[in-house]
Amino acid sequence: MHVQDHWRGRARYTVFDSEHGDGSRFASLVAAWYADPQRPAHLHVVALTGSLQPGFHRVPQDDNNVTLDLVSASLETALAELNAHPDFIRLHGAQGTAFVRPLARLAALGARLESHGLDSEQRAALSAQGFAFDGDDATFSTRKPRLPSTPEPDRRALVLGGGVAGCAAAARLCARGWQVTLIERHPQVAMEASGNLAGIFMPLLSRDDNIPTRLTRAAYLYALRLWEQLGGVGRAFDGAGCGVLQLARDAGHAAVSRAIAGDGKLPPDFARWLEPMEAEALLGLPAPDGGWLFPQGGWARPGSVCEALLASCGDLLTRRFGAGDVQLERGDDEWQARSGDGSVIGQAPTVVLASGAGARKMVQTRELPLQALRGQVTHLAPEHAPQLPLVLCREAYLTPSAHGVTCAGATYDLDDDPQLRAASQEENVARLRGLVSDPQAAEGAPLAGRVGFRCVAPDRLPLVGRLPDFAAVGATERLRDVPRHPGLYGLLGYASRGLIWAPLAAELLAAQLEGEPLPLEMALVDALDPARFVLRARRNSRHSPETAPNATDISP
């Protein structure tokens, strides 16, 4: 069956392949797409593979009009978690018939099925679900009601916030041809939470591979891929993929870590457990309980990441910096961003709110349960800090020296004091001394550093997607039924992991706006939905107060 005669005349074409193999089919498909002058504007391929860590893996391509999602899961699991409606389906050696109903639920009307090795029971089950066979291939039709196709969006957006969240949003929207106006209250990017000299990037591990772990892994891996496409860490922006060593907190923590390592599920280029002697040989310092080495981890200066992201936008981006505090008003199906004097700074049907803790000041989002946590980072001259070959962390972190500065931090404070203070310096230095097992480290270092405020949600997960309209909320019990502000979306609550949350969250939001297949499992998409707090508030009003999830992570 030839796919080319099926995709012509379409704006977007999605292919589902149950076996990615060595990637040759994907390469051939892309070559055919390039060769066809009547090709669809966008080609999206979702393929199953067993060679990656569990979950969805969006792999950026050189051409923004080609998207590849590799899914490391069984066919049944992938179909249950997939948000895509394939126009063309390739099945290779499927087992049983459990996959048939979820496949029919996802398939687009008129989808073509190319099958290999189906038995008579599988063919009969597929036929019963609406696949009409002609030889080994079939065409899908159904009498069941189907959701209408997503209309082409009006590709104009305002993005509020010039930190890593907003800059990533601008980049992923512009990659899809959107015209974006980026509005920032300060005169330049990254002057609030994204303004630190160094942020670290690393994954999260847990014994039960819980939702925070799965989300962080997906975000970390996508960030590495996207940064490489931009030009690479240390080349496209300031930083180094020098590795991160996360020391075990104590013997108990080390035992949990050994159990995780003993499962043999973690690729060594992703995470590798080091016993004390190996960790000490690498670090050149004591590591009495060993630690995790994340070879692809490291540090980056968030402000330079912001500039690299914005540089990729080209002339589709308009910057409105130095805008001060902004409020939103909606009328005639568009949002207007107005400055303090009432003048209109920008106008578009879609707004992405990526202003961190500043969202608490907005009329539309002030009821979201967001908190601003103060974080003071200490800057040390090389003579006051150990010289490290990589990032070192446990309850705190310490970066290698760059541009004559080592960064140590950061505190978690519940006050709103923006000034450097000695007590926070002492806290950072005390943790530094514990990290390097040296009670004299940073002795006599002058008070120097920076204060920023992290935007944090109660469950420590980001808010990604359409923002709920609290004023219109009724007795809903499902996320999909929560009333939303039209055209208003959020990228908020990145806490201490903004560097890695920003790319994947922006990609997810852009895919939602475009009606594309999503880059995450639906369970993880729902875990990020800002409306989750509406449902939790309703549950809490009927039951005892809800506590935070008891995740068994081994993060610092």
UniProtKB/TrEMBL annotation:
Gene Ontology cellular component terms for the protein in this record: cytoplasm
Pfam families reported in the protein's UniProt record: DAO
Keyword Transcription regulation: no
Any one GO biological process: tRNA wobble uridine modification
Coiled coil regions in record: none
Enzyme kind, highest EC tier: transferase
InterPro entries, per database record: FAD-dep_OxRdtase, FAD/NAD-bd_sf, tRNA_S-uridine_synth_MnmC_C
Protein name: FAD-dependent 5-carboxymethylaminomethyl-2-thiouridine(34) oxidoreductase MnmC
Source species of the chain: Massilia arenae
